[in-house]
Automatic annotation (TrEMBL):
NCBIfam families: viperin, viperin_w_prok. It is a peripheral membrane protein. Its main location: endoplasmic reticulum. One of its GO terms (cellular component) is lipid droplet. Its cofactor is [4Fe-4S] cluster. It comes from Microcebus murinus (Gray mouse lemur). This is S-adenosylmethionine-dependent nucleotide dehydratase RSAD2. InterPro entries: Aldolase_TIM, Elp3/MiaA/NifB-like_rSAM, RSAD2, RSAD2/Viperin_antiviral, rSAM, rSAM_sf. One of its GO terms (molecular function) is catalytic activity. The gene is RSAD2. CDD domains: Radical_SAM.
Length: 371
């Protein structure tokens, strides 16, 4: 169209100036009108389009600068740091809790030197806290194995926090004498202060009383300066219990209260060693338990939702266990492929870990305890 404009304009000029002066004005008026139509309209349309675009941009919600930065951050796949690791080095246990979700599927335990090599790899990758768990950690070499690992992590690796979760039944005072100084926190599992309920759950062993044992451990922790913690799994058999008094008397630094969780292949499903369906409680029942104990300041609740994917779990082969699909799918061992490669398959949700308060004052040096 624009190539036609100069040609048409020249034709109009020639015909205009070829006429006598009297009719010149009459000819100029349509010429000027034509010029306005050809040159002015497209400009007007363009400016209208620009106005429309500006209006559309104004109507879209504005993104704050920080919002943009957050999106950029999520786009970059940062390697996960194994800040806090739970190493279930054995699956063997002397108890038979009906809801256990780390069952005795193998009897394998790594040689001590290999376990230490793996722990060194984790420390180099950014580990600050290690928690030894099982099965029952004190079953291997009568506690010597876990003692050696605890000492290695504190003395050699200088980790800020070293802890153990145990059912407490196999711990002797001699162990505290030898290794207590290297341990920050000892968490003892206790689901009920009624011995009959403990037996029903599977936390009983003959004449030994789980609750009496708990008292003894509390005293040793005070004597050997180890922070004392209690873990309870709330389930069908203890959901109506009132534990306020007993917890206050034991005064743990932390009382972790878990909602009973089903894990395919561990405590539910065809190839599982347990069938925990009869232990499960609803979210409302769990909330009811928490409400009853809301005055306990050290209580840290953990619903199924919070537990999901917020723990870095290493099994007996030092493989990360991915619980994203409701079962425990293992990665390759960190001893074979290194931490960075194995952790990609861990399913670990670092945001959820922080959201559930996974990072807390976890070194006894910082706890400022009144022993
Ligand atoms: S004490 Fe722990 S590891 Fe042992 S059976 Fe009970 S839940 Fe499982």
């Amino acid at each position: 169209m624009w190539t036609l404009v100069p040609t048409t304009f020249a034709g109009k000029m020639l015909s205009t100036f070829g006429q006598p002066l009297g009719s010149l004005w009459r000819s100029l008026v349509p010429l000027l009108c034509w010029l306005k139509t050809v040159l002015w309209l497209p400009g007007t349309q363009r400016s209208r389009q620009q106005q429309q675009q500006q209006q559309q941009q104004q109507q879209q919600p504005r993104k704050e600068p920080d919002e943009n930065r957050e999106e950029e951050k999520e786009d970059i796949l940062l390697p996960t740091t194994p800040t806090s690791v739970n190493y279930h080095f054995t699956r063997q246990c002397n108890y038979k809790c009906g809801f256990c979700f780390h069952t005795a599927k193998t009897s394998f335990v790594l040689p001590l030197q290999e376990a230490k090599r793996g722990l060194l790899l984790l420390k180099e990758a950014g580990m600050e806290k290690i928690n030894f768990s099982g099965g029952e950690p004190f079953i291997q070499d009568r506690g010597e194995y876990v003692g050696q690992l605890v000492q290695f992590c504190k003395q050699e690796l200088r980790l800020p926090s070293v802890s153990i979760v145990s059912n407490g039944s196999l711990i002797r005072e001699r162990w505290f004498r030898n290794y207590g100084e290297y341990l920050d926190i000892l968490a003892i599992s206790c689901d009920s202060f009624d011995e009959q309920v403990n037996v029903l759950i599977g936390r009983g062993q003959g004449k030994k009383n789980h609750v009496e044992n708990l008292q003894k451990l509390r005293t040793w922790c005070r004597d050997y300066r180890v922070a004392f913690k209690i873990n309870s799994v709330i389930n069908r058999f203890n959901v109506d219990e009132d534990m306020n008094e007993q917890i206050a008397a034991l005064s743990p630094v932390r009382w972790k209260v878990f909602q009973c969780l089903l894990i395919e292949g561990e405590n539910t499903g065809e190839d599982a060693l347990r069938e925990a369906g009869r232990f499960v409680i609803s979210d409302e029942e769990f909330e009811g338990f928490l409400e009853r104990h809301k005055e306990v300041s050290c209580l840290v609740p953990e619903s199924n939702q919070k537990m999901k994917d917020s723990y870095l779990i290493l099994d007996e082969y030092m493989r990360f266990l991915n619980c994203q699909n409701g079962r425990k799918d293992p990665s390759k061992s960190i001893l074979d492929v290194g931490v960075e490669e194995a952790i990609k398959f861990s399913g670990f949700d670092e945001k959820m870990f922080l959201k559930r308060g996974g990072k807390y004052v976890w070194s006894k040096a910082d706890l400022k305890l009144d022993w």
